[in-house]
Design brief:
This protein has 10 helices and no strands. By secondary structure, it is an all-alpha fold. The N and C termini lie far apart (75 Å). This is TetR/AcrR family transcriptional regulator. Keywords: DNA-binding, Transcription, Transcription regulation. InterPro entries: Homeodomain-like_sf, HTH-type_TetR-like_transc_reg, HTH_TetR, Tet_transcr_reg_TetR-rel_C_sf. It comes from Sediminihaliea albiluteola.
Length: 206
């Protein structure tokens, strides 16, 4: 019988780790961080507890890995959208709408984990800020292009505007986690109206 190569072992380990994270995300979303258990996560992932602990030694490490994956996926998607070869207003509109809708779909896991996990996630604060800075830099580049091409008003400050856009999206995501959100991110019409209002405020007035 052929023994698996080193690369095959690495591939299997990565696949198992992803399966564990998927199950953990479901459990955190359904039960909350405190109620979810490593025993149940292992069982639903089709693993023994010993096998689970080889990948993640405790529940906090699972949460941090899940947080890292969510941030990585979000940043990757944002940078792809912001690199689109479209007029600058359309690029920012599509990024804003896509980001809010996709993150809004993760509401359950955000709601379930946020109250219990502020301290663990502080460990990832620096790494998260570096990742978000990449998105902010991409936003700045699009805004500068929009000014050069005459779409955006020359008085628009690219750095400040990019910072405000990110702050706004974070505020909306936190609002979406409240029992009675002012704006529901699952409402596509509301999101489109919001993005249109923001873009209009940036447009050049000839």
């Amino acid at each position: 019988m052929k023994r698996p190569t080193g690369s095959e072992n690495v591939g299997r380990a990565a696949t198992t780790a992803e399966r564990i994270l998927n199950v953990a995300a479901e459990h955190f979303g359904e039960l909350g961080y405190q109620a979810a258990t490593m025993t149940r996560i292992a069982a639903n992932a089709g693993l023994s507890r010993a096998a689970l602990y080889k990948h993640y030694p405790n529940k906090e490490s699972l949460l941090l890995a899940l947080h890292e994956r969510l941030v990585t996926e979000s940043v990757k998607r944002s940078r792809e959208l912001l690199a689109a070869d479209e007029p600058a207003p359309d690029v920012i509109r599509h990024w804003l709408e896509n980001y809010l809708v996709s993150e809004g779909m993760r509401r359950e896991i955000h709601v379930a984990t946020l109250p219990d996990t502020q301290l663990p996630l502080l460990i990832e604060k620096e790494a998260t800020e570096k990742a978000l800075k990449k998105v902010r830099n991409a936003l700045v580049a699009v805004i500068k292009r929009g000014i050069r091409e005459g779409y955006f008003d020359s008085s628009v400050n690219p750095g400040q505007t990019a910072h405000i856009l990110q702050a706004l999206t974070f505020s909306l995501l936190r609002n979406n986690m409240s029992p009675r959100p002012v704006l529901t991110l699952s409402d596509a019409a509301q999101i489109r109206a919001l993005s249109s209002t923001i873009i209009k405020g940036m447009m050049a007035h000839n």
